[in-house]
Every structure is written in structure tokens, then in C-alpha cells.
Amino acid sequence: MSGLFRHWLTRRIIQRSQITPGQWAEVFAALPLLRGYSEAELLRLRELAILFLHRKVFEGGAGFIVTEAMMLIIAVQACIPILKLAIDCYDGWLTVIVYPAGFAPRRVVRDEFGVVHNVQSHLSGEAWQRGPVVLAWDDTEHAGVIDGHNLVIHEFAHKLDMQTGVANGFPPLHANMSSTHWFEVFSKGFEDFQNRCSRGEHIGIDCYAATLPAEFFAVLSEVFFERPELIQQYYADIYAQLRLYYRQDPLLRLA
Questions:
Q1: 227 Cβ contact partners less than 8 Å away, ≥ 6 residues apart
Q2: What angle do CA 139, 168, 161 make, to 5 degrees?
Q3: Predicted TM-score (pTM) of this structure
Q4: Which fold has domain 168-255?
Q5: 231-241 pLDDT, tens per residue?
């Protein structure tokens, strides 16, 4: 598809959107996180959300009915990380599944000794490589409150991470970024955070981030957009890398 035709098609999708000004007002009012955004940023967020809704399919889990308002709240939050990137970052998969509350999928796993186990985990969200994003609505509805936790941003940070393959805390970087520096900064920060959590030292960042490098990136992405001062205070080098990657500076916005 040529660039000109692609641009024309994108503008046509946006211009033909049936989302009313009242619906936008309701979703923005429901997401306090957006109050520091400029008019230009809110316009861009609206456009990305329209494209997101055009490209993705929403399904309800366990018989849950996903309304248009729910889809819009999810789409807007999903587009916060790509505000200065591109909707194409979410290519390669189709479905968002929404459960009414936390879900407990059963899976068969094989341990290091070759023994097969039936495992059931209680989750509020997950992202599959080249598969769906799964969200619990009770953790999604008020995710835009500025408390440092945002399930939607967390799971879509995993999707950005997965662009290079399996999630490992190393998303595809921009040309002006150093992969060596990213690896050094995040590795050092991850080790330090693991040590803090093992000592029972709480700094306002969920210790779930200490489980895996992929979770460290996803949790810090949540905090970056909601409580950026925490990352700046404890991991200034990581904040600088996230600012370069997302091409946003939430410290300035939330100030």
C-alpha cells in the first residue's frame, strides 16, 4: 500500500468515526490521568483510539457484554504509550478479550524435570505474543486514576516489548538510542529493585516488577505515565531511557 493511499485511508477512517463529542467528554472525565495533556495530545489520542477500534475486535469473556463505552476507555488508555509512536506498533494481532473481573485460566506446563503439571493462575490481565490482550474490567474501569497502577498500559507495554519476539524487557529501540546502554541501565535497575524487594523495602513501585525483566519494563511503564517522579527519584537513568523510547515526558505533563 502506497504512503499516500495509506494516509488517505487513515484520514477517512478518522473522519467517518461515529464517536460523539459527548462520548469523548465522558471517557476523558473518567480518566484523571489525561488532565495534564495538551489539546494537541488529546486530539492525537482521539485519532489513535479511533484507529485502534477500527483495527481490533473486542470480545467478552465468561459471557461479559463489552459496551462501546468500555471499548473506548480501553482504547484511549491503550494508545497512551503510542501517543508519539504509531498505531502500527500494535500490528500482528487482533483481539482484546474483556472479563468482568479477574480470571483463572488452567494451563498445562512442563517443569525442568519433564513432569507435566496442571496449573491454574488468578490473573487480572495478560498479553499473548501475536495473540490477544486479556483484561479484567474491574481493574480496567478505573485504571486511569493516578496511583501508579494501570492494567491497560501494563499489558500494552508487553505488546510493544513483543515486537522483537518474546517479551524480555527489550522493545525495538529508535535510531537515536543505544541498545547497549538500554541493557546496562535496565539490568542494573532490575538487580537493584530485586534487592530492595527482597529486603522488604517499598518505594511505591509494585514488587511484581522484580519477577522478570519483561515485568520490570511493563510495571515501570505504568509508573512512568502515572507516577514518573518515582522512577526519576530512584532510577533516573531508566527514566531517561523511557522518555526517549516513548518520546514523552510525563514529569512535565503532570507538573
A1: 146, 147, 148, 204
A2: 60
A3: 0.92
A4: Collagenase (Catalytic Domain) (3.40.390)
A5: 999 999 999 99
